[in-house]
Amino acid sequence: GENVEQHPSTLSVQEGDSAVIKCTYSDSASNYFPWYKQELGKGPQLIIDIRSNVGEKKDQRIAVTLNKTAKHFSLHITETQPEDSAVYFCAASKDSSASKIIFGSGTRLSIRP
Amino acid sequence: DAGVTQSPTHLIKTRGQQVTLRCSPKSGHDTVSWYQQALGQGPQFIFQYYEEEERQRGNFPDRFSGHQFPNYSSELNVNALLLGDSALYLCASRPGTAETQYFGPGTRLLVL
């Protein structure tokens, strides 16, 4: 069945350093890959997304890469700041309506001052 | 412009009871989806509503049902509650066939 694996489950980086979170997906028909940030007591917030016809996308300090052949995609956060501390989820969807999103298990990112 | 809103924020029920959770989508959004997020896990898709009909469903039993009203707001009903139904229930909305979904803050349900 559809599955998204995410690692690491926890990540601690020094403020100013980069953080990388990696995911793999099982269904080769997946074509939409959003990343969400969830802060304590809040719902997930979309921070960036990428579609299968694009290999890389960047938005300020955040970038995502997608390798369709290997079914891998990654989130890169550069120049990390204390407000980047949160749980990050990768996800994948294969239908055009994209409502059924399969989420990874999450990465708890902590930024050390 | 208000985002996705959900009520109540917290709820405590006992096993066997029934619960109704409510969601108002973001303005201009007509498609609503519900997700269950157990502690320490990613959200799991329950179902999607569009034009007042259930369009897609995840691997959840029939105890989970929903409804969408003409104003696009939605309800999630869970019957015969089990301890394992304790979770954060998230509502997400999007306009039409757009891919980006916006999540509400969730309703935290505790079943004792």
Count of alpha and pi helical runs of chain A: 0
Rg of chain A over CA atoms, rounded to whole Å, is 13 Å
Please tell me what the overall shape of chain B is. globular
Helix and strand element order of chain A: EEEEEEEEEEE
Q: Which bin fits the share of residues in helices of chain B?
A: under 10%
Main sheet: strands, sense, barrel of chain B: 7 strands, mixed
**Largest interchain contact:** A-B, 28 and 25 residues
According to DSSP, the number of beta strands of chain A is 11
What is the chains' assembly state? heterodimer
Structure description:
The complex is a heterodimer of chains A (113) and B (112). Chain A is an all-beta fold. In chain A, 0% of the residues lie in helices and 54% in strands. In chain A, strands 2, 4, 5, 9, 10 and 11 form a 6-stranded mixed sheet that branches. Chain A has a 5-stranded antiparallel sheet with strand order 1-3-8-7-6, with no helix packed on it. In chain A, strand 4 and strand 5 (45-51) form a beta hairpin. The radius of gyration of chain A is 13 Å and the shape is globular. Helices cover 0% and strands 51% of the residues of chain B. In chain B, a hairpin with a 7-residue loop joins strand 9 and strand 10 (102-103). Chain B starts with a strand and ends with a strand. The relative contact order of chain B is 0.33. The mean pLDDT of chain B is 94.
